């Protein structure tokens, strides 16, 4: 299938060029403060066939060329094409999350407002206003959403495109909202010299182009008569003429080719008696191969090009057209790709990954080397994927339990104009702070279990936006009443957490403590009582909770399990465990330890500030049988050296 470039259907000779210049000038002035604080929008009205779609795309291209951030709303939702908020989701590339809070109200929902705030668009181009004001949709709800979008982005310029007789409702809504509007109209071009220049210049740009030697054969008068001067219809009519010319040329070429082949056959027949039969067979075989090659590039007997269905993968270039974010997981990249697929090979990759992982027990982030899934892609794309995602390792937290994420990274992604991307490093055990920012950022944890491979990141961010966490200035329960002081104290606690996390990730088999020994302590302090019958101190320091209701399990009084299961702990719980580990191995000094005790608000027991207190409180909630169980596990798992480095805590 031929892909058409943004500039292909546009020419400076177009009758819509003046309207385009007026819009560009209007949007340039809109970046200045509005007089009397009243926003102003530009309405561009055009009859069907006057080239409004090409106009919107050209305006988008010109603005982006100037370095502006533009939201072009020219896509519609499959589920609800007549609802402005749904189409805004599609244009923002927000994955359709069912039952989103506020999805049926007239106002924009929190997730939309958060994305718009992060991206800070300079201009909005809303196409097909008639979709939002027909008899089948609630135009008042759509008008309210559009007005809110305009008022919520006072520094941005707005261009609204629609059909004249269906845009009256929008003018009324703008007037009632005290929003100024001016109108431009895209009119048909007269049959004059400018129209001739427009058609001839366009004929050399469309794909396939008109052969230069046959440009004089374009019937401009017929194009104008059939299109009535409407720019959009004129382009369609022109392309049909070019196709007819190409067909005529191909037919003449085919007749010449057949005449030439007939002569060759006759020549071969004359000399066949004088040469070996195998020469004739070789000629016939070569002729057959030549015909096969001709069919492989999409030529048919009619001379028209047909879509290519090649036996080899389509030569896409995902390395440059859709690069992965730094440290992005394979499943996250595929999920983002699903929102912007441009070729069937990309669509096949998305569908087959979903189908392959639906069987259960399959880690979607580890499928970057699955050649069965990648068979629809080009060799270059396969190499890119294997190089880009090979940092994934098998000992990461299982995919379904890898629920920690960094809201700061999501916000940075949105500000860069892309959908939120899930990072591989968030799947590392005991990772609770993101160090990719100017200051460390505490990770959050997804609370919902209804996510899919395609919407995991969007669901996480939507949940964060709807939660108090996005509005609180502190990441821990603190004792201070002053908001300014509390924010400073919270930042200091996060910095201490980041310090110990970096130290912990630098441990190895030869350090003291070893990486495995330190991980064992963290796992004990973060033990999940609803799974094993034991509750670690770090997990219950701020809140006493379990991942399942106590009534759902009887294992608290039953047989003990020696298995450590800390992966369901929240980042805030991991931070407490890091503070304990830092105090025990002198990564956190006594002054910082006392600061933690004085600042944080515990559920019951104050925070330990010395090695002895950490050893006493770490397993305080465990009975003697439980302590004995974990002590025995440590003796069998570690060498004498490693065991001695942590025995004080057991």
UniProtKB/TrEMBL annotation:
Pfam families: TniQ. Residues 290-309 are annotated as: Disordered. InterPro entries: P-loop_NTPase, TniQ. Residues 325-439 form the TniQ domain. It comes from the Bacteria. This is TniQ domain-containing protein. It comes from Pseudomonas mandelii. The lineage of its organism: Bacteria, Pseudomonadati, Pseudomonadota, Gammaproteobacteria, Pseudomonadales.
